[in-house]
């Protein structure tokens, strides 16, 4: 089997950054990464500041924002389309699940509340978000009455939510799944459904059909709360929790630090050789903030913070570039 290589770079940080945290989110617009939400102590939101990391100068700043500023939250998701960042859901300081959708125009740093209450999908946290050039997709997470397996899309042009068909019992409700768009389809990877899962599901929005995919190759072990991005036909995942703590979210389970890629054409998994143990390698972790970015003209995975095997929150930033 041909070896696939990848390169991690640990990025220096200047300025006043958010510090160590987990259960937070980032979204990348151009050469800026926007970070929001998270916790240092389990289930206690840190703040609602919008932190901005310049990928070229490696400098943090706190944005001077206006508008409908979201309250602090954990288990939140973020994604971007063009120059707009979208934030959905999470859990507040009273441990209540949320369902507001906010947008942030990065040209003006103005927050806008786009939907809430009955106009939004059901309340949730620790769900997953991804985007294409027109829609913000939301899948799964921890709802008010248990784990969810529903898929929604917010059409940023029409300004409306779309509820897609339910995937059925084969795709159990789950928290911390991977979600990515590849080859015009939405892919759900793994997640926690009472146990760590290792199944892959695919939704075709054109035909409205769900399919469970049988994958092969160097298949990753079951996991949740890992990093997921789509680059071309590949879905790349890093890290995650492979064995939950007996203390639940209050403790640290067993984490992994591996990188895998799924070829969505052949359905073959491959393990990226990415220099584990090196100074640049971020090591095992989960509950990270992550996003797809571009550095040195190459697309890759930006990872910030997360929870460690010692249950300490992390504050480092790393960038992974797949070398095909």
From TrEMBL:
Cofactor(s), by name: Fe(2+)
One example GO MF annotation: lyase activity
Annotated signal peptide: none
GO cellular component, one term: cytosol
Keywords recorded for this protein, A-Z: Iron, Kelch repeat, Lyase, Repeat
SMART domains: Kelch (SM00612)
GO terms (BP aspect): glucosinolate metabolic process; nitrile biosynthetic process
Pfam family of the protein (one): Kelch_KLHDC2_KLHL20_DRC7
Annotated transmembrane regions: none
Identification of the protein by name: Nitrile-specifier protein 5
